[in-house]
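Please check our next protein.
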Amino acid sequence: MRYPSEKKNCNRINKGMTDFSDFIEDLELVDPELSGGKYIWKKGDRHTTAARLDKILFSEEWEANFRNIRQHILHRVTSDHSPIMLQCGAWENANFIGKSDYVLVAKLKALKEKLKEWSKTTQGNLGTQKQNVLKQLAELEKIQENRTLRPEEITSKAALISVFEDIEEIAWRQRSRAV
């Protein structure tokens, strides 16, 4: 959670909220407004405990390529979590006329082309992302040779290691599908 308003009966910002907000800002991510309610997770008969635990984050570049991006809470059935749907202008920008199955296939092809374009950018290119993360980790290592890292630098280093591991996992998953 980033703000007290994202947790029921919470009225102060804690260190975790600040660190998470800093992480989002450092990576220049967008945290769009949530429509359809305030909380994703609810517990208890009267929902005495509730919070917005889940988020969809995306790059500013993604926001520039797609219009009217919104997160919307969907109805929950059996879980204590409500699913989130990301709505964006990808479908509206691709206008096709014909039978519904043709329109769906055509829109999926158009979306595929948009995603291919995006994957060539810095944010979409795993190799470039990996190099950026390794560069930032090397800078922190250099600092650590001269002095002890400050708490925010330690947090940043841990986040970078996590991002690196995620990139590696995605890369291996993609390689396994290529065979």
